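pasting for the record
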Amino acid sequence: MSQRPGRRAYLLVTLFALLLVLFPFLFWYRTWFGRKLSDSQIDEYLADRSAPRHAQHALVQIGERLSHSRDVSRWYPAVIEEASSPSLELRQTAAWIMGQDRKYAPFHEALLRLIHDPEAMVRRNAALALSVFGDPAARPELVSMLRPFTIEAPAAGTLKYRLKLGDYVNPGTKVALIGDMEVRAPVPGEVRSLDRRDGSVVQKGDGLADLSADQYHVWEALRALYLVGDPSDLEAIERYLRPLPGMPDTIQKQAASTVEAIKSRTQSSTPTLNP
């Protein structure tokens, strides 16, 4: 006759099952940026140079407070400091925050540096933020958001694709290997073309894949150009006045509003001749 497991065995099994649930929860809880932080925790996270995700969590919480009109000016110098971080995510998040207070001149100055950042997502966030300041320096990057994006080879070597036509990629998605080097998508979009033959040798700067403009980036760029666009931007904007694959009707409506705003500004700024 077999012996039934004792109470200790049942407790161990129960504990093991609890840990299987608890560990993923704790990991999610520690990394979820929506988790509210106290003022002291924000200070602590910003000071923690060993964990960039802590600093990003703090920045997100600062941005959330700012979006609800809470005074977070005590952390403004830290936001500007993170705008010079070697971390892409921190620079990108800092740019987003700085577009929420156009009255703070040092934010404007920092954004004018970020508009030339080597990473596309940082430049795009900086451009959107600069439009809130009414700065036309945002225009070239905003117009580029309306156009397809070409992923370029960061180095020379043998190419091996990790995607196919029609795939949708997000920033950070692996798109190819060049030798042992991973190539990841800098921006979101659908793969419209693969520019090289799989297995071929490419040189640094060669185009690897063309991505369509992302609908959400198009929407935000059109809204920003409503504020700072000028007549030279109309050709890129007017493309979205007609239905396009993957673009909702709201894009057409926003494009029409943006065109109207630009033409209205142009007419109001044109001097009239006295009779």
